[in-house]
Amino acid sequence: MGLFDKIFGKKKMAETIAENIEADVFSFDLSDLAETSESEREIVTVVEPEISVEQVAEPEIQSVIQSEPETQIEEKYEKSLKKTSKSFGARFNEFLANFRSVDEEFFEDLEDTLIMSDVGVDVATQLTDDLRREVKLQKAKSQDDVKRVIIEKMVDNFGESGLDTSLNLQENLTVMMFVGVNGVGKTTTIGKLANRFRNEGKKVLLAAADTFRAGATDQLVEWAHRSDVEIVVGKEKSDPASVVFDAVKKAKTESYDILLIDTAGRLQNKENLMKELEKMGKIIKREIPDAPHETLLALDATTGQNAISQAKEFSNVTPLTGIVLTKLDGSAKGGIILTIQQILQIPVKLVGLGEGINDLETFNEELFVKGLFQDLI
Ligand SMILES: Nc1nc2c(ncn2[C@@H]2O[C@H](COP(=O)(O)OP(=O)(O)OP(=O)(O)O)[C@@H](O)[C@H]2O)c(=O)[nH]1
Asked: Which parts of the chain span the membrane according to its record (predicted)?
């Protein structure tokens, strides 16, 4: 089953066309969707209490990370993606309003619309080619048919990324390093995540390894207070690797569950940044050979295509295991996630949905896609 069917609970175009051969248009209304979502929610809540004690005791920590009710998380996604879906929806609706027939000009306009929606040139071209085939294959002619094929294809493409978006949490100590340029939201993400792990009963330690920017350490100390967790800091301009060394030692000897490391991101000095991250990596590995378990790149969703260049730059500097896409709430360019995953093949693992301490969520493809298309369907 493709992601489209899973989310929207709908049959594929081909099947529906066959069934609706007599009818002119498809019935694809919102009340239908609402019903589907409701039943999906019911399934989720029924499954939860059935988890046995043995299963809970398993070291499968990934599944425990979401403690908020699913409906609340869904609302957060919907709210945060309003700007994106509005501009996305408006562009597509305008494009479809000018629809006359499915010809080459139509596909060219479609490609332009996709590019303007921050889907990126490569992805837009590939999607248009796919859609060209699909529209022909499914003999879609009316505006509604075409619209549905487009959405179906985009949703399924997205669901077929095959990337693992869950955090790689360990039974014992998990070490996570955060990289990214200044101002993208690294410190805020660490603060939010610390609070979340702390609420789950985990022993959390922070490491303020951005010793270069005045105020960076103070900011992280403030978050440590808010989340009620401990933090290792160094003197201003001291070697960030020594902060990492102290933090790893402390985390190991005092049996912490989670160590979150904040780093400085100075892209203008790539050589230094690479050396610094390499040095930190070596120090961590000396103590814990399979760590860091996550190296997460924070990207600001409001920067659109610029985020892609940053991701490319950083993946040349250090191996990345995932992306944190921050400020999705303030962005009309959330479609960038599609491009990040497709072009870079790096999973988005966390999304920032606001400035508050609870505004960080594990990335959920289904909820994202629902939020993205809320103004189109
Ligand atoms: N709306 C919104 N704002 C966010 C989000 N995440 C971070 N911010 C804001 O972005 C600004 C920069 O965040 P920081 O966490 O300081 O960014 P940083 O990457 O650590 O920056 P440096 O410490 O300079 O390296 C702050 O004002 C945050 O409140 C988010 O998900 N949504």
From this structure: none
Distance separating alpha carbons of residues 286 and 173, to the nearest angstrom:
14
Does 181 sit in the ligand 1 pocket, CB within 6 Å? Answer: no
ipTM above 0.90, yes or no: yes
Asked whether 83 lines ligand 1 (CB < 6 A), one says no
How many A from CA of 357 to the centre of ligand 1?
A: 12
Tell me which of 182, 188, 327, 360 to substitute to probe ligand 1's pocket, judged by most ligand atoms within 8 Å of the beta carbon: 188
Tens-level pLDDT at each residue, the chain (377 residues): 566 666 666 555 555 444 443 333 222 222 332 333 333 322 222 222 222 222 223 333 443 444 567 788 888 888 888 888 788 778 888 888 777 788 888 889 888 888 877 777 887 888 888 888 887 877 777 878 888 887 787 777 766 677 888 999 999 999 999 999 989 999 999 999 999 999 999 999 999 998 877 788 999 999 999 999 999 998 877 889 999 999 999 999 999 999 999 998 764 567 788 888 889 999 999 999 999 999 999 999 988 888 888 898 888 888 999 999 999 888 777 778 877 887 788 999 999 999 999 999 999 887 887 787 776 66
Query: Which residue ranges make up each domain of the chain?
Result: 3-58+67-159, 174-372
d(CA 37, CA 71): 10
Nearest CA, atom 26, ligand 1:
185
Residue 353 is which amino acid?
Answer: L
Do the domains at 3-58+67-159 and 174-372 have one common CATH topology?
Answer: no
Question: What gap in Å lies between CA 352 and CA 359, rounded to an integer?
Answer: 6
Phi and psi at 359, nearest 5°, equal -90, 45
Class for the domain spanning 3-58+67-159: mainly alpha
Q: Which CATH architecture has domain 174-372?
A: 3-Layer(aba) Sandwich (3.40)
Q: Which is it for strands 230-233 and 258-263: parallel, antiparallel or unpaired?
A: unpaired
Is residue 128 lining ligand 1, measured as CB closer than 6 Å? no
Q: How close is the Cα of 349 to the center of ligand 1, in Å? A: 17
Q: What is the DSSP letter of 101?
A: -
Q: Is 211 in the pocket of ligand 1 (CB under 6 A)?
A: no
Q: Is 46 annotated as a binding residue?
A: no
